[in-house]
Amino acid sequence: MADESDAHRDVEDVPSQGGSGMHIHQPKPASSVREFLSEIAVIAVGIAIALSGEQVLEALHWRHQTEAAEVALHHEISDDLTNAEERLMLAQCAEERIKTLSDALRGPAGPWRGDAIEPGEVNHAVLPQVYAMRYRPWLRGAWDTAAVSNTVDHFPRDRLAFYVNAYRLIDALQDVQNRELDVRSQLQPLAYDQDLDRSQRLAFEKDLAELDNWSRLGMLASQSLIENIKRSDVRSQIRPDNSFLAEQLLTFRRELGACARPPDATLD
Fold first, then answer.
1. Which of 44, 126, 177, 194 lies most in the core, judged by the most C-beta atoms within 10 Å?
2. What CA–CA distance (Å, rounded) separates 209 from 211?
């Protein structure tokens, strides 16, 4: 019977399938506490390096994400800023129009002579209207995307506060515009000749008062958006489309007269 030591040969001498000896390193137990602590330290350093590398990659990822998101936000807010300055161009026209209609409604009951605004760049409606304001889409898609992806959580605190305030004003302007359109439709019958009794005139006067409130809120929100951008550290990255605004001003003056004018509050 073969000796037991021959039956259990050292694995280092076991031949591989290819015929050559396969060397397997077997860890040796630490011979001292110092050696054990040294091995633990090597493992800890390796883990720390791996974790720090992962953190660096994550930081680079979020840096790229925030930079791309802010570029999109600046383009979007620039479009909304253009809308705000365009709205302010028509603020005096809106105020004068509301006053003209109100003065006429306070006249004696009886025949009402329709007072419609001609269709054009300002008044895009198919039916004749008595009140005109340039209505535009107020954009917030880039902000929604940044919020859903949690990119906003990686913005600097002051920058995040600016974006939050800016989009609150943009949402307010969208709401004002929607409500203006609702009231404008209620006033639309004033575009036609008809008989109006005193109660009908008072009802239209109430609609005009509501329209006046929304119009003023729209003006204040537009001015606040401009001032908010002026105070931000990204002011140089957010610019209105001045060439477009200059063209629009000429169109507004041609259609509505001298009431259309450059806004007092602008980014420049």
1. 177
2. 5
